[in-house]
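[INFO] parsing input record for NAD(P)/FAD-dependent oxidoreductase
[DEBUG] input buffer:
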Amino acid sequence: MNILDCIVVGAGPAGLSATLTLGRSRKTVGLFDDGTNRNRVTQESHGFITRDGTKPHELREIGLNELKKYPSISYFNTKVTEITKEKGNKNYFVKTVDKKEFIAEKVVLATGLQEVFPIDSVREYYGRSIFSCPYCDGWEMRNKPLIVIAEEEEYMLHMAKLVYNWSENLVLITNGAEISVEGALKLEKRNIKIKTEPVKKLIGVDGYLHAVEFASGEIIERAGGFVVPTFYRPTPFVKQLGCEMNENGVVVTDGMGRTTQKDIYIAGETEKLAPSSVTISAAEGNKAAIAVNADLVSERF
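[DEBUG] output buffer:
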């Protein structure tokens, strides 16, 4: 049985950052990841100082290589399937898909999120010509003929206004959803076209969008765009471990990653149930690790 001070589930920016900080704090840490991070389809990461334009898998490899300097850190390329705590025992028992078992005093959940798209075929273009974050990819799409795909008016208006900052050649696609007269007028004042017809198919090659065909047969040429997905946590641990959430599904914390469940910490997109930048996720991983180390030090002093 492997006994650790802390396990970190998820090797995205939040998990890597948390693991690094804990390793440098002389704690024994197990970092677990199964390679299903949602940014694996992204061609470049942007907005992270000193690493602007670096491919996500390269950023990950740089992070993993940095961890090798710290002998108390172990990396496991596997999926965590179970995290349990026996009554009267302060430790957590962790099992992986390959039947390995671990014991840890603390757990950091940094498993990120996964997307559900309003149009299934968006995934064929996602990360190459259709994106979800203008701050990450708006610069590369500037001045191109773009689309915004969203099915709820709040998000239609928000994303259209935001993307307009990078390109004024913009078409809002609601895929059959309605938009209010007031909302439509706000966009039309900026010459943003609105298409409420359902989408028949997206047309392109090798992940690069060329056009959109609607149910009516109309085709409009577009070079890419942005989509508003819905998000879900890919693991059940937040609920299984009894972490309190608010009415929006956001995990309740103390601002340092401590959840309402003792010895369970959370960082990155997993906490907010919303997308986050690499920079913010890494910072939140650092904060959670500081909380873990502070608690361990206090409890053992």
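[INFO] The mean pLDDT is 96.
[INFO] shutting down worker
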